[in-house]
Amino acid sequence: MKGGKSTKKADAKLAVKKSAPKGKAGKDPNKPKRPASAFFVFMEEFRKTFKEENPGNKSVAAVGKAGGAAWKSMSESDKAPYVAKAEKRKKEYEKTMAAYNKKQTDGTANDVEEEDSDKSKSEVNDEDDEEGSEEDEDDD
Fold first, then answer.
1. What CATH number labels 33-106?
2. Where are the domains of the chain?
3. pTM value?
């Protein structure tokens, strides 16, 4: 019997759908991703060399720890090429974000205003419903 109950609970948990928090808007899949920092540019290269040197290692944490230690032991002059690549990526990102933001303000300004007005209407209706339910409780 115990096994039957646990599968029902497991099925119920699987059926629950998580929704985004009410205050957050959904992510835009077209929005450009932020560029990697100098450390992550270094790690792209470091991961390849680490895997070649340690083919049996399956631990992501070990790669991260070794990469962090290697980055800390590097001098500023050794880090310079990675910093330069990161700066280049950052400039490209800023250009694409400017274009993205311009496109957003040009194309969707009206859509945002309509969504806000619909939201405010529903909030007013929700408040009216709550007040009505409180009055019903007082009558009992």
1. 1.10.30.10
2. 33-106
3. 0.56
The whole-angstrom separation of Cα 94 and Cα 36 is 13
CA proximity to 102, closest of 113, 94, 90? 94
- Residue identified by tokens 């969707």 is 108
State the maximum Cα–Cα separation within the chain, in Å, rounded to a whole number.
78
Q: What is the pLDDT along the chain (140 residues), one digit of tens a residue?
A: 555 555 555 555 555 566 656 666 778 888 999 999 999 999 999 999 999 999 999 899 999 999 999 999 999 999 999 999 999 999 999 999 999 999 988 876 544 444 454 555 555 555 445 555 455 555 54
**Angle at alpha carbon of residue 38, lines to 56 and 96, rounded to 5°:** 115
Q: For residue 89, give every residue at least 6 positions away whose Cβ sits within 8 Å of its Cβ, in sequence order, or none.
A: 35, 36, 41
Rounded distance between C-alpha atoms, residue 49 and residue 43, angstroms? 10
